[in-house]
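Example (one chain per record):
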Amino acid sequence: MKDYKKDISPKYLLIALSVICIVLTLISTFFPGLIKPLRDLTGRFITPMQEGVSDVGNWFDDKVQVFGDVKKLKEENEQLKNEVTNYQNELGKQEAELAELQDLRDLYDLDELYPDYNKTVARIFSVNSSGWFNEFYIDKGMNDGIYEGCNVICDEGLLGIIVESYDDYSKVRAIIDDRANVTAEIGTAGYICTVQGSLQTMDDGYLVATDIDKNAVVSVGDKVITSSVSDRYLYGITIGYVSSVEQDTNNLTQTAHITLTVDFSDIKDVLVILDRKQEVNY
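Predicted structure:
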């Protein structure tokens, strides 16, 4: 069976379309009334399609715009996070510097309280694990004029005494240590007593002052200082204040509770008094 299907030459198709366009142009020019129905028909079908295509295009454009905004916001958010982190680091650094400056000011004020003694600043670098600063090491030693028997002060008063000294570091035993005791004076009358170190009583916030004469007039709030008769501690260094007092059962002495001026739970820097009362063994 023969195939009578023939392909239309593009040349003839182009000529036909050209003729149609010329005819429609002539009709539109000389007979506008005839072309109106065609325009209406075209507008009825083509215009909604154009609007639909336009709406789809606008939708895609909006989505692309939103995607671009989200990406930009993420980038800006990441940048802001980095800036916040930098500000936090800088703030932490400044707070640490301010804290260190305040510590130095406190040491300066402490130095002014005891102007008659030669002193040097030292920093704690090691402490035992008791929870209290009852025995620890500082970063200065004999090379800095620190020897056994040097008194150590902090905050507003007595912290302890040097018990071991090496070239560039020393060991401090605080007055709260169980092995420590300080000959002290209470009140303006200077009643003699012994302040005994005890980590157990420190858990309750005080040390005990014993051997107070039964006739001594001791009141809550009286100041307790190192005594002039102490063989290890220089005179006049504040230890704390009386928080309570009671007569002993022997009716010969009194016992007082002493609230200390030094916070033995948090110490960083100390002042070591280079003057010694006398050289002793510990």
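Caption: Residues 70 and 76 are 10 Å apart (CA to CA).
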